[in-house]
Amino acid sequence: MADLRVNIGKLSLKNPVTTASGTFGYGTEYADFMDIERLGGIFVKGTTLEAREGNPYPRMAETPAGMLNAVGLQNKGAEYFTDAIYPKLKELDTNIIVNVSGSSIDSYVACAEKIAALGKIPAIELNISCPNVKKGGMAFGVSAAGAAEVVRAVRKVYPRTLIVKLSPNVTDITEIAKAAEAEGADSLSLINTLLGMAIDAGKRKPILSTVTGGLSGPCVKPISLRMVWQTYQAVKIPIIGLGGISNWRDAVEFLLAGAAAIQIGTYNFIDPSASLDVIDGINAYCDEYGIKSVSELSGALEI
Amino acid sequence: MKVTENANLHDNYCLLKLRADGALPEMRPGQFVQVWVTHSPAVFLRRPISIHYVDRERNELWLLIQKVGEATRAMAAYSPGDTLNLLLPLGNGFTILSKTSDKRKLLLIGGGVGIAPLLFLGERLQAEGFAPNFLLGARTKDDLLQLEDFQRFGTVYTTTEDGSQGEKGYVTQHSILGKTRFDYLYTCGPKPMMMAVARYAASALIPCEVSLENTMACGIGACLCCVENTTQGHVCVCTEGPVFNIDKLKWLI
Fold first, then answer.
1. Which of A216, A224, A276, A220 is nearest to A247 (CA)?
2. Chain B partners within 8 Å of A64 (Cβ)
3. How confident is the model at residue A133 (pLDDT cuts 50, 70, 90)?
């Protein structure tokens, strides 16, 4: 049994396997299928200051080895999370990390402040990369200046571990990564979904109500893996890798490319307990190769 | 679960029977399962399929499947002995009226493969002391499925678009609607058909439940893809539905 513990800023994870925001609800949706407390952490669904209805249906299109979504950050707002969800989650023996989004600097800051008041939430994931909202979201994540501005503002009000979730829809992700690091981000998670679209040829219509949406699933893995590897060489803060991970082998590849921890996202929809198999698989891999601590794997790629 | 039987029904449908190793969980008519189609590389997401029938004596779950795409064709190719990974039971299910309800005349309206959940519903309603009526519509007589099974649980009326069996036309044009005043409607089928039924129900002031089939990914309320716009805003069809009273929907009827 290897030591699977990893640290992300001041955040300690019992293992490097977490579940990605937007794919795991508030965690409790999955409790019928698995022991969610075995996870290193749960990134709960995107939360904004005010409630959002999200985009109209249809919001989803299946693609080869993946899917497009255009949910648009549907959620009941930060107050609902604080009053109705937090009391249920705070007793869980795993890290609950809230994904925070906004449509303006002020709304990011106000939402982060509300979550900062919750003692059992050890970290937030700042979502500057949602491709499915008109205002805010990815708008902040596609330029180094925009990313810097929002990270700087949130850093001032948020004392615990600040993770910034990056968009792959940029020319050079390392520029954005460096800007977030320079403004005090403790960690980076990457990648969010890739902008894509799907068309119904028979109807001559887009399938998604928003025309474009975010692509995720195994089909994006080579891209996310490449971006983790590039970013690992550009920054010193720990990286949480995600994008198409569906088994332990994928997860180990991300660790080798430079990730300190990983998130399972879309694959939770296919196999709700896949994340637990990933934990067991990583452990078996470590045992097989005589690795005492999983942290030794981070960036251990040999080129 | 293990496949015990997979029977082709005409060219376009199959009836898949599955047996669990342990006892099947409690299931309600209108609920659905998420099938993991592992044998087809073109299929990524699970497929939601409504529960057609539960045979408690044989510990079997029946799924009625129309072959419309890669996934359903892959399901039609399963053979006895194959093992399938299913999430079940999912969703809310139809309202089972109480034995003492004054609503006695129940009509279950199905179109095409949308008749699937109505067999299980009919059985449960009959067990509760009702004498359910089925109004089943299809394009041709070859698309009218499982009629003998439906007849075990109630009176069956049929329509076909080409007039090859039952009355010619759509379900909402069937003469029984003019002759009998029903107290409660349940419907499942193509959306235009369900909207026509909902329109009829609303104009005749008859309570009506519809079963929606919005495209979904997870089936457990996590991804928020399958939402329907309701009087309570966007809600997940997979957890708040798939069955909705038409009063809750924002359909323009």
1. A276
2. 42, 44
3. confident
The minimum CA-CA distance between B239 and chain A, rounded to whole Å, is 10
- Scan residues 80-139 of B and list those with Cβ closer than 8 Å to A: 85, 87
Q: Looking at residue A137, what is its pLDDT?
A: 73
Architecture in CATH for domain B106-211: 3-Layer(aba) Sandwich (3.40)
Residue ranges covered by each domain of chain B: 2-90, 106-211
Q: Is A130 known to be catalytic?
A: yes
Q: Is residue A203 part of a domain?
A: yes
Contact partners, residue A4, CB within 8 Å, separation at least 6: A14, A15, A16, A40, A279, A282, A283, A286, A294
- B2-90, CATH topology level: Elongation Factor Tu (Ef-tu); domain 3 (2.40.30)
Measured CA to CA, the distance from residue A294 to residue A22 in angstroms comes to: 26
Which band of pLDDT confidence, cut at 50, 70 and 90, is reported for residue B253?
low
Which tens digit of pLDDT belongs to each residue from A189-203?
Answer: 999 999 999 999 999
Domain count, chain A: 1
pLDDT of A256-268, one tens digit each? Answer: 999 999 999 999 9
Residue A278, domain extent: 6-297
Residue A181, token pair as written in the block:
């690091």
pLDDT computed for residue B252 by the predictor = 76
Which pLDDT value is given to residue B103? 87
Rounded Cα distance between A81 and A53, Å, is 15
Looking at the predicted structure, is the pLDDT value of residue B69 above 90?
Answer: yes
Mutation for testing the A interface, residue in B225, B239, B251 having most A CBs under 10 Å: B225
Which residues from A are below 8 Å from B89, CB to CB?
A: none
CATH number at residue A289: 3.20.20.70
